[in-house]
Amino acid sequence: MEMVDPNVERQRLAKLWDAYEIQERDLIEAKERIRALDMELEEKTTMLGTLKGVIESRDRDVRDTEIKLVSLEKMHEKSGSAKEDLEKEVRRANERFTKLYSIAEEMEIELKDLRKKLRMRDDWFKDNIDVIKMMVRAIEERENMIAPLGEAPSVREIQTLQ
Fold it and tell me: What are phi and psi of 21, to 5 degrees?
């Protein structure tokens, strides 16, 4: 066997030890990097799951919205004729209202004229009430004058006597 110099052997061991420490450090760094990447992967997986949920929710919302849109389009088509019918009905109601309004205006004019005539009649009556009362008194006096004389037979009584 050949004899190896202990210094050379120490240098070899030192080099091996240095290489071992470098690999150990690299291994620790690699493990830390793996742990960091695992955490990052977990975060991204969680984020991906959340995003999938959001996308699924949005897809449901889009489908619901599309269904509602189709429904609203059908309702819009149906409401077109109903709208036209309502517009016709409103026009007819406006025409009737216009006619009624013109009749009401005519009646208002007629009412004013009748009130004026009524005031004139009342004024005439107030002006002539004394004359009417005097005529009533005169007729009562005439009846009182005739009553004591006796009543004359009526035309019927004369005819029945014959």
Answer: -65, -40
40/46 Cα distance (integer angstroms): 10
Question: Taking residues 4-15, what's their average pLDDT?
Answer: 87
Residue 59 lies in a domain: yes
Residue 151 pLDDT greater than 90, yes or no: no
Counting the structural domains of the chain, the total is 1
- Whether residue 161 lies inside any domain: the answer is no
**CB-based contacts of 153: which residues, under 8 Å, 6+ apart?**
161
> Domain for residue 109, yes or no?
yes
Check whether 75 has a pLDDT greater than 80.
Answer: yes
Instruction: State the DSSP H helix or E strand holding residue 118, giving kind and residue range, or none if neither.
Output: helix 6-146
Give the structural domain span for 108: 6-150
Mean per-residue pLDDT, 124-148: 86
| 131, part of any domain | yes
